Amino acid sequence: MATETTAEVSETGPMYADRRNNTVLAERFGQTVRALGLDIVPGDPATPAGSSDIGNLSQLLPVIHPYVQIAERGTPGLSEAMREAAATAYAHDRTEIAATGLARVVLDLLTEPGFLSAVRAEFAAAEAVFNSPHLVVKNEPGLPPVLHYSVDAPAVGVTLARSRMPALTDPRRVRLCRLIARESMTTLDLAARLTMTAPQVSRHLRALRDLGLVRTERSGRFVLYRLDLAAVERLGQDVVTGLQH
Questions:
Q1: What is the DSSP string of 175-196?
Q2: For a Cys-Cys bond, which of 33, 106, 167, 199 suits 38, CB 3.0-4.6 Å?
Q3: Are residues 98 and 180 in the same domain?
């Protein structure tokens, strides 16, 4: 170059990691798109095809990598035949169903605490297996050595535990919690009982839900809110446990 500048490029670790498919998410997606009229079969765990960068992401959070057929089997990817198939109404319809299925799975994650817990549990279990035997040393030629080890951490960290306590000091929020501690209620029901506007109630509920103190469940087109009594009962213990780690 004119300035005689040089650059040295090196990798700090393996470029692509193996993809870990979350079967709980995959099964829900399969059920959802089948109900919408799209036949889909489980993938083969032994051959996790897909874009390689999704593997890196799957080491950090639960993912799925579904495929929807839009052309005849055996059609090469990145080919003219695949390009032509992608422009058909058939491909558009199937892609629309797949996108709808993904959106509904996301909605289920937001409204079904049990489903979300199952997804997280499988990811945590896979992470433990991935780290087995809990101490792994990687020393690949040309790369810095890496030490992998699992850390035993409390389910609720001290930061979250401390954030939960002041969240329950607001008088209006305490009144709201008293109501949903007894029964599940909608935003409109709470607004009427508390003489507050629906947006005001929604802001309080969102704050409590973000802190893991409120659970939601869907009843038809309504979302019901209920105080997570177990989380509230553990407040003191969570702080103590968090301080010890």
A1: HHHHHHHHS-B-HHHHHHHHT-
A2: 33
A3: no
Q: Which residues lie closer than 8 Å to 111 by C-beta, 6 or more apart?
A: 216, 217, 218, 223
**171: domain range?**
158-243
Residues 125 and 44 grouped into a single domain: yes
pLDDT at 50 over 60: no
The tens digit of pLDDT for each residue in 172-191 reads: 899 999 999 999 999 999 99
Residue 7, by phi and psi: left (phi above 0), alpha (psi -120 to 50) or beta? beta
Distance from C-alpha of 244 to C-alpha of 158, rounded to nearest angstrom:
9
Give the residue among 198, 192, 196, 199 at the shortest CA–CA distance from 172.
196
> Which is higher by pLDDT, 196 or 221?
196
Token pair of 44 as six digits: 């083969």
pLDDT, one tens digit per residue, over 17-32 is 667 788 888 889 988 8
Name which of 179, 198, 176, 200 is nearest 187 in CA terms. Answer: 198
Residue 141 backbone class (left: φ over 0; alpha: ψ -120 to 50; beta: rest): beta
On whether the CB atoms of residues 158 and 244 are closer than 8 A, the answer is no
Domain count, the chain: 2
